[in-house]
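Consider the record:
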Amino acid sequence: MKRFERKSSAAFTLIEILLVIIIIISLMAVLIPNIQNAMNQSRKGTAQIYVSKLVGDLGQYELVNKRPPSTEQGLHSLVEKPSGDPVPRMWSQIETKLESDPWGTDYQYEFPGRHNPKSFDVFSCGPDRLSGTADDIGNWDPAETK
């Protein structure tokens, strides 16, 4: 008579598989919000750096032409020679291309500025893509807008 012997199995049981799935889901629930928060902070930092660059470029424009471009001339005056009033005395291309902010919208420019009435405002509309909201990232102190 043959004896039936139980062979040891190298397969995983259903309980072990479910336990691994639960652990993976738990880790994802903790990590994904942290990764999204880090991405948002990175985008805000990138926007602030580019705003600072534009402020420097506009300062150079103002130094040469004795005043910044008008709101109508806008940031494009850094890329192409502006027309209209005031016509710049000595124009030279500062930017080769104007970038969009990390949320895909154009950077905004106002002269005179709402936040800097004696100068200009340069800003990104931020994550909500709406101008004039609390999440705007610009060349002013955010504490003053609250």
Summary: The mean pLDDT is 86. The beta strands are 108-110, 121-124, 137-138.
